[in-house]
Amino acid sequence: MTGSIEQVDGVKGSMPVYVGRPEGEGPFPGVVVIHDALGMSSDLRNQVAWLAGRGFLAAGPDLYYWGRKSRCVLSVIRDAMRGSGDAFDDLEAVRNRLVDDPTCSGAIGVVGFCMGGGFAVLLATSGRYQAAGVNYGGLPKDPEGFLRGACPVVASYGANDRSLRGAGPKLASALTANGVANDVKTYPDAGHGFLNDHSDDSVRGRSSYWAGSPAPSTTSLRPAMPGAAASTSSVPISATVAPTNGAIINRVSRPLGPDRDPVPLAEGPRPR
After folding, report:
1. Which spans in the chain are helix H?
2. pTM for this one?
3. Structural contact between residues 156 and 185, judged by C-beta atoms closer than 8 angstroms
């Protein structure tokens, strides 16, 4: 895996995007990786590196590129609450960067964490992604109504997450009611943010990203979590991920155990 900072034209200027490229010639499925409220960090770079190491052309943008962090945070959260705005246009620019890459297969997924997980939920119905990985993301007021026509969704929640009590079962129920293939897991001993590691960021802060900190190690990216108390779906995931129908995977987010390894994205038609 090789990683580098690229500049993508955003709504408000040049937007830094950390791109992780797998070894080999491809074609590779693409994944847009959306950070949590802390923004671009060593954790996001680790997420991108982990996915690239498993065969995904992954891109994690800095959505706070255009101004003071406090101002950017409020603006991006407002966009998420409205379901539209510059943050969505910036994410579309990152998606287009992946689609236009000559090593990309054209199949694109989206993965998000916390705030980014909320964006992943919203983008699941955009028609622009073949799968969405939602990690403890907030839900719209009417999940069942909103998620009609959504792409396949993989989601992970923690039962001890007080900010999102019952979100996992609600999401699974809404997706199943709409016939959307899903794999939604709620982990009984996990709280919020259990897939993120900001230990380096708490010490070195945002400056470590700009200073070009050492390439992240993937050895610490598989936390040992207990088995899932799953909100299961009656929709067979295998029907969605079969290569014959061009869909992509049953789990695009990081696995939580030996039985949770992602299935490689099937090579599907290039999105229009």
Report:
1. 42-53, 69-82, 86-99, 115-123, 143-146, 167-177, 199-204, 207-210, 237-241
2. 0.78
3. yes
As a whole-number percent, the residues of the chain with pLDDT over 90 amount to 69
The Cβ of residue 71 has, within 10 Å, a number of other Cβ atoms equal to 11
Contact of 113 with 193, CB cutoff 8 Å: yes
264, β-bridge pairs: none
Dihedral of alpha carbons 163, 180, 263, 88, sign: negative
Distance of alpha carbon 123 from alpha carbon 108, whole angstroms: 12
Domain spanning 2-198+224-245: CATH 3.40.50.300: no
- Name the pairing type of β-strands 182-187 and 153-158: parallel
For the stretch 25-65, pLDDT in tens is 889 999 999 999 999 999 999 999 999 999 999 999 999 99
Residue linked to tokens 């009656």? 234
Tokens of 116: 């980014």
Buried b (16+ CB within 10 A) or exposed e, 4-18: eeeebebeeeebbbb
Q: In what order do the strands lie in the sheet with 131-135?
A: 2-10, 13-21, 57-61, 28-34, 104-113, 131-135, 153-158, 182-187, 229-231
